[in-house]
Write a structure and sequence with these properties.
heterodimer; A: alpha/beta; D-Maltodextrin-Binding Protein, domain 2; 5-stranded mixed beta sheet; B: mainly alpha; MetI-like fold; about 75% helix; about 0% strand; globular
Chain lengths: ~450, ~290
């Protein structure tokens, strides 16, 4: 038995460490005639998959000898970033073309995952069609461009007119402050206790959607901000107020139960089931939600434009400009280790040419970033809410464009989750956030709000 | 000497494979815990050696002591107490049961063990879900059950792990009990020992080596349980069921702090080591 004793410790250690060490499995690499394209395909988001499949067919027909290998990653948003980052860490799995969120670009550029596209873009005649905001969204800290924008988005309040009518609220309901929003939610709760009055994403499972559609839509309406003059703002009243709002809707039962809200699939459930079925009154969500209800979407709902109304998210107490929105968007980028960058860019230029951009912006309900698409009558005609959400661009905010943002975004999710579950008060959660941010960026990069 | 070398040669391939696939990740993980490796950002390209900063950060992190405590609770309640006590009780009872009862009962118990972990996890999720089997059954007798996964997440995952793991302990103890010489228990019986005394003073001392081995195996297995908890509660609500494996996963892969996550994994190795030493010392399987 003595040998057993010597043996047990290393075996123990090994078994435990394997759980972390065994990650990063290999997969198909790229050779000279293959372009690998990695993108997200999850739940209701299938429009990208449809686009890439068609572009693959067209590209392969135009370029015999080149194979396009599609790598759809079926994962929720945060897991998608993780999987993509793990793929990028090894040259044998790094994709040539990837679907990349604008807020990850600066961080991934510093990680050395992305290839600067300036030389290609200079020769691409279509590049002039992209609006300046879209060009900036794809830029790294070094000023070079790393991503070609597929479309942008804004956020606002979607509401089901039938549910609001039952609560005695008008068809053109437009709250002017947080209190009016809460009043409406309470009225809905009173008129029908089975309906979720107000959906605001919150907590870790929804990832960046919680932070952007939920928290930041509140925070940027308080007059405070996350990041100012190159420093992260700590201890602001707006931060506590925004958390307090989250706490209020979740503890008063105006939002989904925390159990429902902490389900990875809630994003799909809200847009594909609850809104069409009249189980949610008001939803703070993105401009793209209607894409689910188009004929090409995951949950076709022809009557949606009659039932659903839209309203701008009000600022905290109605202060100017009265409404608030946040913008993001996704790009296509090329991996820094790509052996076929020329072909990869050709693929991107095909996927985002006028015709395909138009198709994608319509199907995925994106706000067009190509001026030729934005003016296209087909674009303006297909989606009746396009005009409303495009107008929100005037009051929109962008997330802090720094490579630390993704980490800090995670700390916001943690704060939201501890407030919505009642584990911490807004003040406590804000204090934990302040400490975590100081740990990430250092004392010298923070300022008191 | 040359004979020793010659004998070692056939072992070489196995040793190399073990070193490559078992020791390699351990060493890498240990090394990683002293760096600030991340999945994205500047430290993904050029990780820096930061010494003990990750460990110092862990001590200051309010989630960590909580997670350590939850892990100890989870291991103690579901492995040490749940699986072992239930396992030995089942093994003892089934020995004296009639044949059909024995085969039916052991099939039911072993079924949970045979299920792949992900299937077992979904089954447990469906059972404890607020509109799941358990609450449906409680509803049948007029009780409105709580939302188990939300209000009592630790209880739910502990019970699920007991359900899933008891079969292993039961099988180990069935084999061990079959090895207890009947003349020993008979002698004790003649001396007037009752059932409980026979169990405490005869049976348990005889099978203590099996107990020690089984405690060790179930503890280490439970310590690294990930799928079950992740599927059932995702470590939540908040961090109310985030044991160390869940915390390590979240830090490494959700929050992209690979270095920090491997530091947590290293702590898990230490916790496993402490449990192992306790068992080896307390039950001294090698002395006879």
């Amino acid at each position: 038995m003595r040998t057993a004793r010597v043996f047990i410790a290393p075996v123990t250690a090994t078994a435990l460490a394997l759980s972390l060490g065994a990650c990063g499995a290999g997969g198909g690499g790229s050779d000279d005639s293959t372009i690998t394209v990695a993108y997200q395909k999850f739940g209701n988001f299938t429009q990208g998959d449809a686009l890439f499949k068609d572009v693959k067919a067209a590209y392969e027909e135009a370029n015999p000898g080149v194979t396009v290998e599609l790598v759809p990653i079926e994962a929720a948003q945060n897991d998608y970033f993780t999987k993509l980052a793990l793929m990028n860490r090894s040259p044998s799995t790094a994709p040539d073309v990837m679907y990349e969120d604008t807020f990850m670009i600066k961080s991934d550029v510093e990680a050395g995952y992305l290839l600067p596209l300036d030389d290609y873009l200079a020769e691409w005649e279509d590049w002039d069609q992209f609006v300046d905001g879209a060009k900036e969204a794809g830029a790294g800290d070094d000023g070079k461009t790393y991503g070609v924008s597929m479309g942008t988005d804004t956020r606002g309040l979607w509401f089901n007119k039938d549910v609001l009518a039952k609560a005695g609220l008008p068809e053109d309901w437009a709250p002017t402050s947080w209190d009016e929003l809460l009043e409406a939610a309470r009225a809905i709760k009173e008129s029908d206790p089975d309906v979720v009055p107000l959906n605001i994403y919150s907590g870790k499972p929804m990832g960046e959607a919680s932070v952007m559609q939920g928290f930041e839509m509140l925070l940027y309406g308080t007059g405070d901000t996350l990041y100012e003059d190159g420093k992260w703002v700590l201890g602001s009243q707006g931060f506590v107020d925004a958390l307090d709002f989250i706490g209020t809707v979740y503890t008063e039962g105006l939002a989904p139960t925390p159990q429902q809200a902490l389900d990875t699939n809630i994003g799909n459930t809200v847009s594909a089931e609850w809104l069409p079925d009249g189980k949610v009154g008001i939803a703070l969500d993105g401009s793209w939600v209607a894409g689910n209800w188009l004929e090409s979407g995951a949950a076709p709902w022809p009557e949606w434009s009659e039932t659903m109304g839209t309203a701008a998210m009000p600022t905290q107490d109605g202060a100017d400009p009265g409404a608030v929105s946040m913008s993001g968007g996704w790009t296509l980028a090329i991996g820094s280790g790509s052996e076929v960058p020329d072909e990869a860019f050709e693929f991107i230029s095909m996927a985002l040419n006028r015709e395909n951009s138009l198709r994608y912006d319509v199907e995925a309900s994106q706000i067009a970033v190509r001026s030729d698409v934005a003016e296209d009558p087909e674009y303006t005609a297909t989606n009746p809410t396009a005009e409303f959400f495009t107008d929100l661009v005037e009051v929109t905010h962008f997330r802090p464009a720094t490579s630390d943002y993704p980490k800090i975004s995670n700390e916001i999710m943690v704060a939201m989750e501890s407030v919505m579950t009642g584990q911490q008060t807004p003040e406590e959660a804000a204090a934990v956030y302040d400490e975590a941010v100081t740990g990430i960026v250092g004392d010298e990069n923070t300022t008191q709000g | 000497m040359s004979r020793g070398v010659a004998r070692a040669v056939p072992l070489a391939p196995a040793v190399v494979l073990l070193a490559l696939f078992m020791l390699g990740p351990v060493v890498w993980s240990f090394y990683g815990s002293f760096t600030n490796t991340a999945l994205t950002g500047p430290t993904a390209a050029n990780p820096e050696w930061i010494g003990f900063d990750n460990y110092i950060g862990l001590i200051g992190d309010p989630d960590f002591p909580k997670s350590l405590w939850l892990t100890v609770v989870f291991v103690f309640a579901s492995a040490v107490v749940g699986q072992n006590v239930l396992g030995i009780a089942l093994a003892g009872l089934l020995r004296s049961a009639v044949r059909p009862v024995r085969s039916i009962a052991s099939t039911v118990v072993v079924a949970a063990w045979v299920l792949p972990e992900i299937v077992a996890a979904f089954a447990a999720y469906a059972f404890f879900h607020s509109e799941g089997t358990l609450n449906a059954m409680l509803g049948g007798v007029g009780i409105t059950g709580p939302d188990w996964l939300y209000s009592t997440p630790m209880l739910a995952v502990v019970l699920a792990n007991v359900w899933r793991g008891t079969a292993f302990s039961m099988m180990v103890y069935s084999a061990a009990l079959a090895e207890v010489p009947p003349e020993l228990t008979e002698a004790a019986q003649l001396d007037g020992a009752n059932g409980l005394q026979r169990l405490a003073w005869v049976t348990l001392p005889v099978i203590r080596r099996s107990i020690s081995t089984n405690l060790m195996l179930t503890t280490l297995q439970t310590l690294s349980v990930f799928t079950l908890i992740y599927v059932m509660t995702g470590g939540g609500p908040g961090t109310d069921s985030s044991t160390l494996p869940i915390l390590a996963y979240q830090e490494a892969f959700k929050f992209a702090q690979v270095g920090y996550g491997t530091a947590i994994a290293t702590v898990m190795i230490v916790v496993g080591g402490i449990f192992s030493v306790i068992y080896i010392r307390a039950l001294r399987p090698e002395v006879d």
